[in-house]
Write a structure and sequence with these properties.
The chain has helices at 12-25, 30-44, 47-59, 67-80, 84-97, 102-114, 118-132, 144-157, 163-171, 178-182, 186-189, 195-217, 229-238, 249-265, 278-287, 297-307, and strands spanning 222-226, 271-275, 312-313. It has a three-stranded mixed β-sheet with strand order 1-2-3, sandwiched between helices. The chain has 16 helices and three strands. Helices cover 59% and strands 4% of the residues. It binds zinc ion (2 copies).
Length: 339
């Protein structure tokens, strides 16, 4: 089966409406569902509707898991449609509140950066790095975007490398180095004075920023659906039509791994795996008014589980057990060379 539909083919308005409906069914998961619905509203261009969803979450009686993230997303969205003063006030409040989660920091710093407030963006990234990275030589992965963002803004400001820039360079793993990626003056230092080349560099920088922002505006992974062996047996016994999708459990697991690798190789970030159960799948089919035997429902089921916060990040951390449920480390199980 295919994972989540690529962003460009999604009917964002319909998807937002479906997630808002699902939030009525699972109020305990409303925060993650409505955040994803808001991302679709933003992508559909209906920014006021996204603001309404952020406000609904912030005004709800239930305490939020991550109120700072909701505020950061709201500020970033507001600024995109002309509410600069309100956005700045929220950003100031957020910086003063010093959240211990990197994501809201990244979102507001990038919002400043994308509105050419480079000094402010730099200060914001630096505050967050000071708070969350400190002197850790192996900073946790969620803090990497802070280091990368700070590195990027400092290159655009023409600042010299400091220790945190060196750390950013050392944790960066893409084949192209961070300095190549972030240095708009690179073409000059190579002896070129061709404005077209400089322009190409700047476009690349903006593209990278765009990719990060896209990942953040979709705080839920692109998720592949995984059925444990016993669930798959039960599913295929009840709905033999699905045998076409799932010829065997072994094949099912191998396809998940290869699909995720393909997505990762094509630059899709934020990948994950959701685990299905027959009763929850049947309930989902009923809510959508269709039969569980309908294979086109499977990717929607996966997306909904992911939107409900049920996705586990892929690939697993080094040394962690494989995602397939075996006790073997990922590297020697599905993470091996021949999946
Ligand atoms: Zn560097
Ligand atoms: Zn495995």
């Amino acid at each position: 089966m295919r994972p989540d539909t690529p962003a460009e083919n999604v009917d964002h308005t319909a998807e937002a409406a479906r997630l808002e409906r699902t939030a009525e069914l699972y109020p305990e998961d409303a925060e993650s569902l409505l955040l994803r619905a808001a991302a679709h509203r933003e992508l559909s261009g209906d920014r006021p509707a996204a603001t309404a969803l952020y406000d609904r979450l912030l005004a709800s009686g239930t305490p939020l898991d991550n109120p700072h993230l909701v505020r950061a997303l709201k500020a970033s969205n507001l600024w995109e449609y002309g509410h600069e003063a309100e956005a700045r006030a929220i950003i100031d409040g957020l910086r003063a509140a010093s959240p211990r989660d990197p994501a809201p920091w990244v979102i507001v710093a990038e919002s400043l950066e994308s509105h050419d407030e480079l000094e402010q963006a730099h200060e914001t990234f630096t505050e967050a790095v000071r708070l969350l990275v400190t002197d850790n030589p192996k900073p946790p992965k969620p803090t990497h975007p802070l280091l990368f963002g700070r590195h990027r803004v400092r290159r655009m400001l023409g600042a010299a490398h400091d220790e945190w820039d060196a750390l950013a360079d050392s944790v960066h793993t893409l084949p192209i180095t961070l300095d190549e990626l972030h240095d708009p003056n690179r073409v000059w230092s190579l002896g070129s004075e061709n404005p077209a080349e400089l322009e190409a560099e700047l476009i690349r920088l903006r593209a990278e920023l765009g990719a990060y922002r896209e990942a953040l505006s979709r705080p839920f992974p692109v998720a592949m659906l995984h059925w444990p062996a016993s669930e798959l047996t039960e599913l295929l016994t009840a709905y033999p039509a699905l045998l076409e999708e799932y010829p065997s459990h072994e094949e099912h697991l191998a396809r998940i791994e290869s699909a995720l690798r393909e997505l990762a190789a094509s630059g899709t970030g934020n990948l994950g795996i959701v685990t299905g159960t027959v009763p929850s799948y049947e309930a989902f089919a009923a809510a959508e008014g269709t039969s569980p035997a309908d294979a086109t429902l499977l990717p929607q089921y996966a997306t909904t589980l992911a939107a409900r916060g049920r996705a586990v990040a892929w690939p697993p951390d080094p040394g962690a057990p494989c995602w397939c449920g075996s006790t073997t480390p990922y590297e020697t199980c599905h993470g091996g060379t021949a999946p």
